Structures are given as structure tokens and as C-alpha cells.
Amino acid sequence: MNVEVTPLPGIGVRKDFPLKNNRRVGVIDHRDGTLDLIIGKPDNPDVTDQIPLTRREAALLANLLGAPQVVAQLQEEHREFDGVTTRQLTVRGGSPYDGRPLGDTQMRTRTKSSIVAVVRAGHAIASPGPDFVFNAFDVLIVVGTAEGLEAAAVILTDG
Question: Percentages helix, strand, coil for the chain, rounded to the nearest 5?
Fold first, then answer.
């Protein structure tokens, strides 16, 4: 699928792609750093509804769209291994680890679970190292036992 990039002089850049139902979806990335989600009308894909998003809203939406695909792929790969599970956990605003490095969690030592990827603003960051600093709304892809994943969720919430 090709993303069409259209310069909008004095405004920014429009990036969109066609959907199966003759609609288009994408974003307008404004020069001032703001973003608009755009959704084409079903009867005329050149006419769009525009929804302004803050950077935080755009990052959260990107995580919602990107993280489930990473989790599904890992679950498929681990299906043959009994007792190994993959789960996504979100670093919430106010988490004791918002703004702190992964190493501070001591996740593997404390839970026997591993953070194998972080989805930030829709982009998967594979194998983050101990110096990787978490941000609120990062979605962590964690692999381990069911008990280990529950313990990981508690650590991210309570410290």
C-alpha cells in the first residue's frame, strides 16, 4: 500500500492512503507541529473530515493502532511454547517509571518477564536496552508467564 505525500504550501504536508471502501485516511502534519486526522467521505474521497489532535493524542492513537499488531505477531510465534505469553502494558501518566529508564524496573530479575519491544507513537522499538527511557503512553510488549506478566503490570503501576 502506498502512502501519498502531498505538500500543502504554507500549511505542511498531507499523508494519506486509500481504503478498500473508496475512502482515504491519513494526517495533515502542520508546520507548527500540530496534526489533523483526516478521513475521506465515502461518496467523495477528496472531501475529508478533519479532527485536530494534540501530540499526546496522536501518540496514543498511533500506539492503539500499532501495538496490537506487534502482540499478535509475538503470540503467533510463541504459540508452540507452553506457558509463554505475550501481553501489552501501557506506561500510564503518573507511573513511577514515566521518564525513567527500563533498567530501573529490574523487570527480568523481579518477574522473569522480558520487555521485548516498546511501541511509541506507532513505531515499534525492538529490544530496548536498560538505558531506554519510558514515556507516558508507551506500550510495552512483554513476554513471560501469566504470573510474571501480572507482576510486571503491578511494577509499572506501583513501582
Answer: 30, 35, 35
